[in-house]
Amino acid sequence: RAGPDVQPFVSAWAALFLIEAGERGLRVPDDLRGGLNGYLERLAGDRARSSLPELRERALAVYLLTRQGRVTSNLLGSLHEQIERDQPQAYPRDITAAFLAASYQLLQQPKPARELLAGPLRHGREVRAPNDWLVYHRYHDESIAQGWLVYLVARHFPEQREQVGQAGIETLLAPIARQRYNTLSAAITVLALEAWGTEAPSDELPALLALAPPPAAPAPFGQPNGLGIGGDFPAGLAALQIDPADGTQAWYALLQAGFDRQPPAPEQDRGLELLRDYLNEAGEVVSQLPVGGELTVRLRLRATEADAVEDLAIVDLLPGGFELVLDQPPPSGDSDPDAAPASGRAPSLAAAGTTLRTEHEEMRDDRVVLYATASRSVQEFRYRIRATAVGRFAVPPVHAESMYLPSLYAQGASDGWLEVKPQP
């Protein structure tokens, strides 16, 4: 915990990272592990956290403690009782039940484990509508839930693998094929596939044949690498033929390098709208100023398809020849002008007129990065820049994207040029 704002899931995810690292032979400092486990115990026992996302985080905390060999019978029983009382309709199909099931299984209580796992297993086999993958909230969506399910079944319920089956694996991989994944769902998918693949016999690798244009004959392709097989092929190859072993399925991934033949549209948006302009002291939109002059950058953001879009990253590159100007706090009375402000307030990036509430701001040499939530109403973020060189400078496009739902984004068009003239 590096600050007062703590994200319970992120802390639990860090604990899982350390557990996985330790199981792979890496040394995890005892004080680091102990600090995290202390936090997990407080999280697991916090009965004030009673919404389904909060109970899900608490169930994950109990599972992680149990996974390390701790006796969590009291925590688990108390949490199970509260979940049944506070979320009786929602939790049986949720991955929350699978976390509880894995904890019971680790504590050698197979009966409640099987009963709790049944609901998530049924849900994991259901066919999802494409839009179901678009719902993301509190580090959770359908692809993340499916990854957790496959991971937990592979590690703790090998006898239930057939209940997941190939359909469950296809459900796990569907968001990747549709380009609807994020760093978290991708990481959980990798963990799930690794755990699932430990039971796969190596002689079930598919056969790959490279089909060259006639009259060349097909030739074996690729080299085995763990549970996969792969290699490089030239652009002129006619096709690749994949022959899975009997009774098995195979998946493939194609990696390409280079540039798009058809450049993307300069202005794009899906679910978000982001506009930017440059204002002078009178509040007028301008494209010219003298060297040493200052402009206010106005970013206007709104969500177009939802009441709120959380966890947005907004990246605004500065034009060449400009630098950031920070809002300095007012001096305190007759104090030394060279001393730090008595109020303790640090210089701020946000200028007067800002209405967008940000979770974090990063000021870099060539850009501003904001992390915020968009609502249906237009919100503004304003900051100031100063011209440091004479010239005509291209204005890069501004970009916003959901960090955990990349299908939601806004790519602004380039705003042309800013012309900086010599002082008269």
- Specify the number of helices: 9
**Extended strand count:** 18
The residue-averaged pLDDT reads 88
Overall 3D form? globular
Helix content: 25-40%
What structural category do the secondary elements indicate? alpha+beta
Using only CA atoms, what is the Rg?
Answer: 27 Å
Tally of discrete structural domains: 2
Unreliable segments (pLDDT under 50, ≥5 consecutive)?
A: none
Sheet bearing the most strands, described?
6 strands, antiparallel
Strand order of the largest sheet: 6-17-16-10-13-12
Q: Roughly how many Å apart are the termini?
A: 54 Å
How much of the sequence lies in strands comes to 15-25%
Helices and strands, in order, run as: HHHHHHHHHEEEEEEEEEEEEEEEEEE
Note down, in words, how this protein is organized.
By secondary structure, this protein is α+β, with helices and mostly antiparallel strands. The protein folds into two domains: 190 residues; 143 residues, Alpha-macroglobulin, receptor-binding domain (Immunoglobulin-like, Sandwich), CATH 2.60.40. The chain is built from nine helices and 18 strands. A six-stranded antiparallel β-sheet has the order 6-17-16-10-13-12, with no helix packed on it. The protein has a four-stranded antiparallel β-sheet with strand order 7-9-14-11, with no helix packed on it. A hairpin with a 7-residue loop joins strand 1 and strand 2. It is globular. The protein starts with 7 loop residues before the first helix and ends with a strand.
